[in-house]
Amino acid sequence: MLIDTHAHLDFKEFDKDRKETIERAFSNGVKKIINVGCDLKTSKNSIKLSNRYENIFAAIGIHPGEINEQKTINREQTINELKKMAENEKVVAIGEIGLDYNNKSKVESQKLKVQFEIQNLQKEILKAQIELARELNLPIIFHCRMAHSDLLEIIKKFPACHRAVIHCFTGNYQQAKEYLKMGFYLGFGGIIFKMNLDEIIKKIPLDRILIETDCPFLTPLPRQSSEKLKAGLPRQSFERTKAGLPRQSSEKLKAGLPRQSSEKLKAGLPRQSFERTKAGVQFAKTNRNEPVFVKHTVQKIAEIKKMSFQEIEKATTQNAEKLFGV
Ligand SMILES: [Zn+2]
């Protein structure tokens, strides 16, 4: 049984079939789900959802993407509200919190000074939330995009708070090692079908890996585009994929994809174009991810590490239970 350690089931993408989506997960190998907040509203919604389902748990926090030139956040008031929310027994972590310097489209029209101010504000809100996690003795779910050196610098100042995961890890091996040294877990999801993180995943000890979907975003490749799959994959494989079965063989998939895609895939997509894809509403709408797809990530990690699905399943579930106490 698997644990999806990072889901956003409260998002509007699930408004029409939230109940069915959750039931589909729990009746197809998913044991528990951590639903993660991004601001005060989604944190409250995460708690609400976790109170409706025994095996859904909540993380609460302010995502760095919420800190921008259009919004002002009252730090003291926000931290107090989070603290109040954390009294709910289903709250198992502070997250997602962190730094996100991928603000390119906005920044181009901004002065560098504004960018600098936003980054500083992100750091201030992050530090306050790390303090809160320490005070409440809760683990942390970190979000970090294009900011690993700054995040590492901050984290090193809080040695008492090293029960944490870097969700959707996309850094390099050097950075991975730094996090591992501090006792962190690294979370992987659909991104590993888009960026080539194979060499890093190979080297990360299994007792430090968590699996996640980040749904509705980051749909694993077998789910990403049925058109591509239809065109490229042998009928039987596509039927299996459609039915939600684990991919039969990544080799088949590689062989079946249009040339350009498989080359892009092998090389790992350039960071920028992936980020744009992730941010695209179109992507989320037409290719919605959901907790049941977490098994594709397990299958892919098993292939990379040359281990069985069951070995990855067992270890990642134990890791999640240990970190979040669920
Ligand atoms: Zn997320």
Verbal overview:
There is one protein chain. The protein is built from 17 helices and eight strands. By secondary structure, it is of the alpha/beta class. It has two domains: 2-217 and 269-324, Metal-dependent hydrolases (TIM Barrel, Alpha-Beta Barrel), CATH 3.20.20.140; 221-257, no CATH class. An eight-stranded parallel beta sheet has the order 1-2-3-4-5-6-7-8. Helix 2 (40-52) packs parallel to helix 3 (75-85) and helix 16 (294-305) packs across helix 17. The longest helix has 25 residues, at 112-136. 43% of the residues are buried. Zinc ion (ZN) binds at residues 6, 8, 36, 96, 214.
CATH superfamily of the largest domain: Metal-dependent hydrolases
The number of helices is 17
Rg estimate, integer Å: 19 Å
Q: How many β strands by DSSP?
A: 8
- Per CATH, the class of the largest domain reads Alpha Beta
CATH architecture of the largest domain: Alpha-Beta Barrel
What does the main sheet amount to? 8 strands, parallel
Mean pLDDT: 83
Helix/strand order: EHEHEHEHHEHEHEHEHHHHHHHHH
Helix proportion range? 40-55%
Percent strand: 5-15%
> How is the largest sheet built, in terms of strand order?
1-2-3-4-5-6-7-8
